[in-house]
Design brief:
The chain is mainly α. About 65% of the residues lie in helices and about 0% in strands. It contains 19 helices and no strands. It is globular.
Amino acid sequence: MKIALIVLSSFTFLLLFALLPLPLPPYLDFQVIYHADLGLLRGIPIYDHTGQVNMIARLANVPPDQVNVLPFPYPPWYALTTLWLALLPIDLAVRLWFGLNLLMLFASIWLMTGGWTGYKRLIFFLPPFLFVPVLGTLLVGQYVFPVLLGAALWAYAADQEKPVLIAFASALLTLKPHLGALILLASLVYFGYRKGSFGVRALIYTFITAVLLSALGFLADPAWPINYFHSLLAFRRVPGVPACTLCASLPVAIASLVNRQTGFALTPILSLVIFLALLIWWGLKRRSIVLYPISLLTLSVFMVLLVNPYLLNYDFVLLLLPFFVLIKHNRTHLEYLLLALAYLLPFITLDLLGRQGNSVFLLSTFILLVMFYRDAGQLDVSRSPAYNPATIE
């Protein structure tokens, strides 16, 4: 009964957005997935960018060189789950996508505020709309909310010991692999320590889900593993992508200090160095964090946002998870001030500098990481269901 009510409420919510004449721009980021799906319905494989460009040119009655749409850079099952959008006119589809993103955001907040009193829980549905990445994602129709929902759902499912939800959350994390893969890997590391039937069932269900998704991918492209890899290589040749001039990325920021023209070739090496540094730092000082699913997931979010060489401001939607984890604890006035600074600084800076102020997100990330590091030092490992003195102490 409860599930039926949630489904009915969600459907009504989406129907409302379908009917509201919201002036949402359909030809920004949203058009990438829409035209990949539209091409799929017309027999064009999702990684055939040339075929998609020619299709759009025919529909718009313009030469192909006037079509500006990026290649589809995500796994094929992302296109398959959104295929229904291409059955609708793009102006209607973008409104439904906006509503679906809102639903995923609300569901994430609900999961991240589990255990809070009703009044406090409702109040905290409002602050995310003051966070720049949330506004940016909603406006351009970006694709990061499934990863946020996957992380929040995984933490909830691990706490409640629900292996089926673990598998579903893991599937959501794969929809944007350059963000979700490291988080998914961290979740699997947790089950390496978590003994008992729950951990075994969660791993089995996750493996079965991975096999099913991979098999479904062949419906979108019969050679999807090869073509997906080639598509990612081709994506790097898109103007502006190699240098990532608008990136909010620590490796890119360091590389630009070395040499603004050629330093970006160093970003993979810098990413690896930063990853190893964070891994060694936390492994030596806070290795018991692997016993706590929400804490391990939070650390993995920080690592994604500090290691990944290709991040734009909307990818920092993932910072909502550390924010909610940190704000659950009682704080001093100074700590609340630091949280507010980390939360509002990007809004203030981007208002002054535009997207050139993207690097401020890194400052917010560092502020939260330091606060989280202090909290992690107070974890009582003996209270974790994954505790095993032989492997931790």
